[in-house]
Fold this sequence. Notes:
By secondary structure, the chain is mainly α. It has helices at residues 8-15, 42-64, 73-92, 100-116, 124-131, 145-177, 187-223, 230-264; strands spanning 20-24, 27-30, 40-41. The mean pLDDT is 89.
Amino acid sequence: MAAAEHTTGEYIAHHLQNLQVCRVDDAWVWNHCQGNFWALNVDSMFFSVLLGLVFLLLFRRVAKRAERGVPSRFQAAIESVVEFVDTSVKETFHGKSELIAPLGLTIFVWVFFMNLMDLIPVDWLPMTAQLIGVPYLKVVPTTDINITFAMALSVFVLIIYYTIKNKGIGGFVRELTLQPFNHWAAIPVNFILEGVALIAKPLSLSLRLFGNLFAGELIFILIALLGIWQLPLHFAWAVFHVLIIVLQAFIFMMLTIVYLALAAEEH
Length: 267
């Protein structure tokens, strides 16, 4: 879909539209799902799963072909990422868990891969998809609030699990009702304050990642409207955007580790 063939509004709206499927009147329909809560964003799910498989296959390949002595550049890069995540976990999470380090590594690399799709020129994959009859295609999963919120909800479930596992149901209830004011008369106020703080964790995780990547994608779309200026501007913004891509993956990972560390430790 070339920008010159459509109005600016149509071009932007097209690139922000997901490929959707939903059930209407006992039939599955495509791209007529506005207002349907059960609509599935097929493109976001496809690229999320695809990039997850790429992550697993790459790391499995390196693990199986790991060599002693002088490693290959790719092996050294993978080992550096693993060591970086492992160090971050050890410095932040002081409990005992075999899940936290693999979880941190998965989050960092998976979110990084999804963010990295933002560097692909905005017309390449959607135009290719149109040639085979696919009208819409969003290729950056983290620009879909459903993806980021689903990941944040998974972290939220782990926060509840680790809190109950380490402090018991009674400890979990006490955290919600007797903090920050340790008096029975302050239970309603404590519950409101702690409840808001608890719910804010998945919201902050999902909205921060979504907001930053959505804004970056929108700037790439606007740059694509500039004709002959789009190539140098795309390159300049891409160089700067690399920092955002890595930083947002790191922030999501670190906040996850911090939240789980708080769930596992006594105040």
